[in-house]
Write a structure and sequence with these properties.
Blueprint (H helix, E strand, L loop, with lengths): L4 H20 L12 H11 L9 H17 L9 H13 L4 H19 L4 H76 L4 H28 L19 H10 L4 E6 L7 H21 L5 E8 L2 E8 L11 H4 L2 H12 L3 E6 L5 E8 L2 H5 L7
Parallel strand pairs: 1-2
Antiparallel strand pairs: 2-3, 3-5, 4-5
């Protein structure tokens, strides 16, 4: 859980105040006067303003050093009030690098002043501390500032890389959808020619051809609407002409994965029925990516693929039992790989949902649910659960 910066600074100020109070109770034992109400007020003024250290670092630094100077002048134990000024200098070094030198010199000056008022015989040690502590705080502040800058740059690069990966994945999906739409157009072209040829001689065949044209054109338009709604990139090239895989090729995929050493069981529930090529492609690619992740990240595990035809939807799940004992179970969800981006984009393209993550009983699971298009329903989407 990430705290609000002001809340975090408040906790730090409260912690330093507590340490200063506990240390102040030991002042008499260290040979210093006991802290009276004025001293405790100054201690509070040395630490509590640190709540605002990240909002006004230079102002807070000057304020706590002024209070520390008054505290030292009244001959109280200087160590009790040293924590606030030191943290203030560190904050300036991490947030206001151009003001660091002046604030570090101020800390060194008040430190030497405290040494002169307490024990002139130990000035060599005091001088070393007056030089060493500001330099160390300066260095720590510089490292913190550089770390923060690098973190922001890394986050920006990660966000940009994620956007590029999404764009690249959408281009790949568009190329595959190009094949799907081209298939529909080819069917329409052939059926239109057939309808024209038999229009006068065989009215029934002509009507069947027109029905086929209606269904194919509707599916093609649906694919085009999805593509235009998803893609916002220029320069998309055409497909390479390879046919888009479908559900009838799941057996071949499972066989290939079995040869890679993964025991895969394929189950089909419900009554299989024709589905648009785009929906079949989406299911095929998600299963392909899930089984590939099993091969990569759960060697030796057994996997199960279940394809379910339901009323109004088709669902597919890929689960595994986890890697063999002794192997590192690194999963793609923990690494943020490209495959998960592709799965989510495909599911979103067809109005479906996808759930990816570890299972409570062990292993990993991917579950995709896609609504069945109206055209598929007309061809017999009457399966009940």
């Amino acid at each position: 859980m990430r705290l609000h910066p002001l809340a975090a600074d408040g906790l730090i100020a409260a912690a330093l105040t507590t340490v200063a109070v506990l240390l102040g109770t030991e002042a008499v034992a260290q040979g210093w006067p006991a802290l009276d109400p004025l001293a405790w007020t100054l201690v509070a003024l040395l630490t509590l303003p640190l709540v605002l250290r990240t909002r006004a670092p230079v102002t807070v630094c000057l304020a706590v050093h002024a209070c520390w100077t008054v505290y030292v002048t009244l001959d109280y134990w200087p160590v009790v009030g040293s924590f606030g000024p030191m943290l203030a200098v560190y904050t300036v070094a991490s947030l206001r690098p151009t003001r660091t030198a002046a604030c570090a010199a101020l800390l060194a000056g008040v430190w030497i002043y405290a040494g002169l008022r307490s024990d002139a015989g130990a000035m060599a040690s005091v001088a070393g501390q007056a030089v060493g502590f500001p330099l160390v705080l300066w260095r720590f502040g510089y490292v913190a500032r550089r770390t923060g800058e690098l973190t922001l740059r890394l986050r920006a690069e990660q966000a940009d890389r994620a956007r590029r990966e999404v764009a690249e994945e959408r281009v790949r999906i568009a190329r595959e959808l190009h094949d799907v739409v081209a298939h529909h157009i080819a069917v329409i072209n052939v059926q239109a020619g057939l309808a024209r040829f038999v229009f006068h001689s065989d009215a029934r065949t002509a009507r069947d051809a027109l029905d086929t044209i209606e269904g194919a054109s509707g599916e093609a338009l649906a694919e085009l609407r999805r593509m235009l709604g998803l893609l916002r990139a220029d320069g998309v090239q055409g497909a390479d002409g390879a046919p888009a895989p479908g559900l009838d090729q799941l057996d071949e995929m499972v066989t290939r994965v079995r040869t890679g050493g993964v025991g895969v069981e394929l189950r089909v529930t419900g009554t299989p029925r024709p589905l648009p090529p785009g929906v079949q492609l989406c299911v095929y690619r998600v299963v392909q990516e899930a089984l590939t992740n099993v091969l990569k990240h759960a060697p030796g595990a057994d996997a199960a693929v279940e394809l379910a035809y339901r009323a109004g939807e088709v669902a597919v799940s890929v689960t595994d039992g986890g890697p063999s004992e002794g192997l590192d179970p690194v999963r793609p969800a923990e690494r943020g790989g490209h495959g998960l981006i592709g799965m989510r984009e495909r599911a979103k393209l067809y109005g479906g949902t996808i759930v990816v993550g570890p299972r409570s009983e062990g292993g990993f699971g991917v579950r995709l649910t896609l609504p069945t298009p109206v055209q598929a329903a007309r061809r017999g989407d009457t399966v009940t659960e």
